[in-house]
Design a protein that fits this description.
The structure is a single chain. By secondary structure, the protein is an alpha/beta fold. Helix content is about 45%, strand content about 10%. It has an eight-stranded parallel barrel, surrounded by four helices. A two-stranded antiparallel sheet has the order 1-2. Helix 1 crosses helix 2, helix 3 packs parallel to helix 5 and helix 10 packs antiparallel against helix 11.
């Protein structure tokens, strides 16, 4: 079997690249020093319509099998998040079914799961009054809590569009947090992940936005397990982390600086709720397992080589990172095709995806180099590159 492949470059030249044998990562039974969620992607039914604007059609068996893979490594699953294409192809009707199915499987074996509650059942075509936004949030929270999962209160496009002042954010979150039955995870998703969330918390000034966010957390800390911060700003995350009330976790969503943020410093550390952990699950679990044993050197040796891959997958425009993660899942044999809901497989170029293969190999997260080469050859041939 051959693990060498000729890959195209931007100038049109083909260059040989040989994949290495993958490292053997330890597989911890459970992780204890950090709470770690991988935000999981969904697998489209390749025979479904799944074009732009069409309702999502999922391959349920393969989608759920991937979640069981994450759980088998000791990771929690963050379900129905932006990684699962919320707002980019995954409609609310399909999302409800995804939450119910995943939560049912999690409950049977006691696996950790948290699910995203948003307002995406509201149309984007008109502004919505605050009471409609609250009702939409509460409808989704009820679906999640009834399924037995923890709620992740996702940032709302409708709220960002309809709020006229930071007071609107305070009223909306107060209305929700006083009604949920269990502590939730808040979510601050930066505009690089979703431009329609620019100015969230009522200000485009991130320092002012942080003050509003902290005020809401301080007033409702008993109903807040933590906050996921996806701003790709390491220093800002650390400053926010240091000001959280006792008992409220900071879940890093920084897909560029996660090794340092999860490791932490003398002032504390971040837990993790990361999209990149979908693609580097084995390495992520082994690294946190090493941290559990106090082996910081091994933690760094495993996790730091994955950062160039993460930076590439999450490069601008950042919101197309789902394409790279799904392609990596295809290369690694977690699914048999590279099709996505909403036609999002077109979100990255052939050259970009070739670099995903190279960087994933260098990060040690290609599980079977021979399978990956075989699948990459098929992909290149389908794109007219022999």
């Amino acid at each position: 079997m051959n693990s060498t492949i000729k890959l195209p470059h931007a100038n049109g030249a083909l260059r040989e690249y040989t994949l290495r044998e993958p490292p053997a990562f330890a597989k911890p039974e459970r992780l204890v020093s950090r709470t770690v969620y991988a935000a999981a992607h969904v697998v489209a039914d390749p025979l479904g319509e799944n074009c732009l604007g069409a309702p999502a059609v999922l391959d349920w068996e393969t989608t759920l099998a991937f979640r069981h893979y994450l759980w088998s490594l000791g990771l929690g699953v963050a379900e129905a998040m932006d990684t699962a294409q919320r707002g980019m192809g995954l409609d609310w009707t399909t999302t409800k079914e995804l939450i119910r199915r995943s939560a049912t499987d999690a409950k049977l074996a006691g696996y950790p799961i948290a699910c995203g509650a948003g307002t995406d059942q509201l149309s984007d075509g008109r502004p919505h009054p605050m009471h409609e936004i609250v009702s939409a949030y509460l409808e989704q929270c009820e679906v999640i809590e009834t399924a037995g999962a923890r709620v992740i209160l996702m940032a709302s496009r409708a709220l960002a569009a309809g709020a006229s002042h930071s007071d609107d954010y305070e009223r909306v979150y107060d209305s929700i947090l006083t009604k949920v039955s269990q502590p939730v995870i808040l979510h601050w998703l930066g505009a690089m992940f979703d431009p329609l969330l620019d100015g969230y918390w009522g200000s485009q000034n991130l320092d002012q936005a942080a003050e509003i966010c902290l005020k809401i957390i301080g007033e409702h800390s008993a109903k807040i397990d933590g906050i996921k911060v996806s701003l790709l700003d390491k220093e800002r995350e650390i400053r926010l982390r240091e000001r959280l009330p006792v008992g409220v976790k900071l879940y890093t969503g920084d897909d560029f600086n996660y090794p340092e943020l999860v490791l932490g410093n003398s002032g504390g550390f971040s837990h993790a709720l990361l999209g990149i952990f979908d693609g580097i699950a084995g390495a992520a679990a082994a690294a946190v397992g090493a941290l559990d044993q106090g082996n910081i050197l091994l933690y760094r040796q495993i996790l730091e080589p994955t950062v160039p891959l993460a930076c590439h997958i999450f490069r601008t425009p950042t919101y197309y990172y789902k394409t790279g993660l799904t392609f990596l899942a295809y290369l690694n044999g977690h699914q048999d095709h590279f099709r996505m809901v909403g036609g999002l497989e077109s979100g990255r170029s052939v050259i970009h995806l070739c670099e995903v293969l190279v960087l994933a190999d260098q990060a040690g997260v290609i599980r079977d180099p021979y399978l990956a080469v075989q699948r990459m050859r098929r992909f290149l041939a389908a794109n007219g590159i022999e």
